[in-house]
Amino acid sequence: MTDNYWTRRRFGRRAVLRTSGLGVAGLGAAALVGCGDDDDKSSATAAPGGGTTTSGTTPSATKVTTAAKPAGQINVAVSTLMEQSTSPFFQTGGGSFVLYSQAFEGFYNTGMDGKSEPRLAESMEMIDGQNIRFKLRKGVKFSDGSPLTIEDIKWSYDSYVNNDPLAGQAARLKKGVAKIDYPDESTVVVSFTQPVPFAMEEFGVLGASRGWPIASKAYFDKVGADTFKSSPVATAPWHITKNVVGQYVEMEANENYWNPAGVPRVKTVRINLVPEQTTRIAQIKTGEADIIEGIIGPAADTLKNESNIKIVDTKNTAQLTVRFQDLWDANTKSVQADPRFREALILAVNQDQVAKSLLKLGSPSPQVLIFPNSSGYDANIFKAPKQDVARAKALMKEAGAEGQSMRLGAYTSSSYPLIPEIMQAYSGFWKDIGLNTQIAVQESGSYFTDFQKHTPRGLGAISFPNFSSGAILLVTYFKAGAPYSTMDNIPEIQAVISELEKEFDSKKQDELVTKGMKIAYDKFLYIPAPYVDSLWAVGKKVKDWTRIAGIPYTNSFNTLTLA
Amino acid sequence: MAPPALGVDRTHRILVPAFGAISRESWHATGLRWDVRGCKAPMTTYIMSRLGQAAITILGISLVVFALARLSGDASALLIPPDATADQKADTRTRLGLDKPLPVQYGIFLKGIATGDFGKSFRFGEPSLKVFWQRFPNTLQLAAVAAFIALSGGILIGVLSAVKAGGLADRISSLIALLGQAVPSFLIGILMIVFFSVELGWLPTSGKAGPKTYIMPGIALAWYSMAALTRMTKSSMLDVMDTDYIRLARLKGLPERTVIWKHAFRNALVPILTLFSLQLIFFISGSVIIENIFAWPGIGQLTVQAIFSRDYPLVQTIVFVTSSILVLLNVAVDLLYAFIDPRIRLS
Questions:
Q1: Regarding beta strands A268-273 and A73-78, do their DSSP bridges make them parallel or antiparallel, or are they unpaired?
Q2: What is the domain count for chain B?
Q3: Alpha-carbon distance values, B133 to A82, B129, B297, B299, B302 (Å)
Q4: What part of B 243-282 touches A (C-beta under 8 Å)?
Q5: Residues of A in contact with B148 (CB under 8 A)
Q6: Same domain, residue pair B73 and B98
Q7: Which of A209, A333, B201, B340 has the smallest C-beta neighbourhood within 10 Å, fewest atoms?
Q8: Of B83, B301, B310, which is closest to A246 when you measure between CB atoms?
Q9: Is the Cβ pair B73, A447 closer than 8 Å?
Q10: Are residues B238 and B338 in the same domain?
Q11: Is there a single domain that holds both residue B294 and residue B183?
Q12: Looking at chain B from residue 126 to 145, which residues have their Cβ under 8 Å from any Cβ of chain A?
């Protein structure tokens, strides 16, 4: 029998020891060789009841004119792509807005003013409180040049509401829609199971970017589910061409886009996932990225000195409030029940100082949860309070609240920077007027869970992304029983909400929003912190870029112009 | 004459440093008891014992992972819009199986482990194990590079430091070892990005796109382990260099390179490898930070993403599978030790 070197030496102890180091080296060499919380808060221009029609202002698809061909490439570094799904039928959080708002379209999508605008529908008509009729835009083509048909609309709806997994919005649509009729090639009638006074907002789905996304059935039939999921064919300005999960998504300009004004001027956009802010900043400095998102104020300050980098912003993308959590208890004996105490806490705070010195961005906000672009907002009513320490002290004395101690809950948020630090500053302001606070910083998940269970008492910070619909703000965050409401025991506000839910006239809806918000404002039910802006750094390659008002997420690459 | 044995009597097991060196007959001639269990069979016993311990550890891990994942809050809160009604929230909880009592959820989790079904990721909508395996090779590649850098760098610097003890090279290597253990990896990572990418423009800042992209994350991940290995190599080499057989080798006129690498280093290698095996865990656990800094698409980055989105099935899968791999790796190392040195299995 031949003496085999390998079998003879394979298990020798010395051989093992001798070769172990080499083994690791070999592995290394082999490797080298081988090598929420947020929705888009678009507001629909809710159609008034009684058949009034809201029409689109976007150009007709039939008037396509020849434009300059898209050219060049832009690299964008984003902090998250959420689940990085490129399927039109599975989109969830706000972090993937950068994808779904640009690669998919529904009947209505978010326009540049932050409100819904007609896209694949030319108009919508509220037939009655429960039925909406959409008239489809004619002459729309998919990115592969094939025409959009009613079959695509039907198939897209079925695919969306039967997708596995089911997106949150799809689940709501599935439950809320009784039936859909397609009387002719250009009409869709959606019937809801119950009256929907602000259907566009209530369901979010018909008016928002994620709602009922339309994609090509013929393309799906041709390529199958797997290829479709990674590079679907839709009608939007951008067409997803590559999705490497955990790394990047690549999109190309859809030159067949039905709206010539919306055709991108850049040929290719590569969206790289770079979670760490420091790394994104390094990328913009080296030129590896042309746009980076998620810059906080202090970092923006340092980048301002770089000659080839510009800081651009979108104003008022989020608001922070501090809530009086003892008010969850209708019979509370807490000093929080005293409006003088609540006013004192509001007046003690210097928001301007917080915005300028700590956040290095943003502007003071009023003591109510509303944004300047929200329907129902009135600048004459909702004014940011000015710091008045003397009056705050007097109010504290009147309320007998001097020397009191209170818990102050805080957490870290992806949509609002430096919350624990701001609460530290607020704690200082309140100490000056005689209130001692103990700051308790929690992980955001457990914080929200506790908040929804109404577990913590005392004061609690909570931030909100921009909403352009005041009605949704009021119903979502003020209605008794809503997850983030602290207004359960304020009957005046609950009465307004009840009235609002029965109102189909959008103008009257806005009036009711103002009325409800004013009650909260006058009763000092929120302690406000500054509105913050979202910041991006852009490199020298980018000449111009416009973003959607109020949206904190990266968007609208079709407005990019290269230098 | 029988070879020296440790703990020899008729009731205790006999520890023989070099079992293969004597025959059974010659051993019996000594009149001492031949303990079959203690010498021949214990490897099987030892393997069974270690595997049993590993199974208990893995079961413990499953419980800890399950509990910790749920301590971070209610996943449904992140998966539904803020304006969702109580009904819609309840629907989501039912769909995700979060409405069941915790013991039932744990039972489902354990059953899933047994059948290889770890559930669907809430976020990705795909089987969690599939999502895990998509990313794990990337982490493994980076870990392999880091292990290579740590081992080769640690050994080279450590040997140099021992051989040139007291000299400039020794001081520099001591400084490197000190910095390695004192300065956190993430800071080294960021400093490297600033220096090598932003200032010098030599290397890409991040991502995984070719050999160059392995260098900085590999060094950052290897940083701490390399320092520890440097110190161990130096200390072990100094011990060996002071022995008689090294002096003899030198007296025989052997070249210094042969003395150091063939005679001294070989004998100093066992404690170095011991430490290295302990450091293997760090190459996986350290990836959580390093992968985020360098935008590396591995399980470290995935873990952070899963935790922030409260993706229970995915968090459970990542932690459970990774921990189980590490536990089994440790068992393998222990078995290797027992194979190399029989005293271990007999103790």
A1: parallel
A2: 3
A3: 18, 6, 12, 9, 11
A4: 266, 269-270, 273, 276
A5: 24-25, 27-29, 31
A6: yes
A7: A333
A8: B301
A9: yes
A10: no
A11: yes
A12: 134-135, 138, 140-142, 144-145
**Chain A contact set for B71 (CB, 8 A):** 446
In a shared domain, residues B161 and B289: yes
**B128 is a domain residue:** no
- Looking at residue A312, what DSSP letter applies? E
Q: Which domains does chain A have, with CATH numbers?
A: 5-235+539-562 (3.90.76.10), 316-532 (3.10.105.10)
Per-residue pLDDT of chain B (347 residues), as tens digits, is 444 444 343 433 444 444 444 555 665 666 655 554 444 556 788 888 888 999 999 999 989 888 887 776 666 666 665 556 667 677 777 877 788 888 898 888 888 888 888 888 877 878 999 999 999 999 999 999 999 999 999 999 999 999 998 889 899 888 988 898 899 999 999 999 999 999 999 999 999 989 999 999 999 999 999 999 999 999 999 999 989 999 999 999 999 999 999 899 988 888 898 888 888 888 988 899 999 999 999 999 999 888 877 788 898 899 899 989 888 888 887 887 777 666 666 66
Q: Which domain holds residue B117?
A: 42-123+315-347
Chain B residues lying within 8 Å of A84, measured CB to CB:
124
Q: Residue B152 and residue A285: Cβ atoms within 8 Å?
A: no
Whole-number CA gyration radius for chain B? 26
Chain B residues close to A200, C-beta within 8 Å = none
Let me know whether B99 and B143 are in one domain: no
Q: What are phi and psi of A268, to 5 degrees?
A: -130, 140
Q: Give the distance from residue A443's alpha carbon to the nearest chain B alpha carbon, in angstroms.
A: 7
**A-B interface: how many C-beta pairs under 8 angstroms?**
189
Contact A445 B135 (CB under 8 A): no
Question: Which chain B residue shows the shortest CA-CA distance from A275?
Answer: B292
Distant-in-sequence, close-in-space partners of A125: CB < 8 Å, separation ≥ 6:
A47, A51, A52, A53, A54, A132, A133, A134, A135
Asked if residue B217 belongs to a domain, the reply is yes
The reply to whether B255 and B154 lie within a common domain is yes
Query: Which pTM was predicted?
Result: 0.81
User: Does an H or E element contain A344, and which?
Assistant: helix A339-348
Of A258, B163, B338, nearest to B347 by C-alpha is: B338
H/E element, A562: strand A561-562
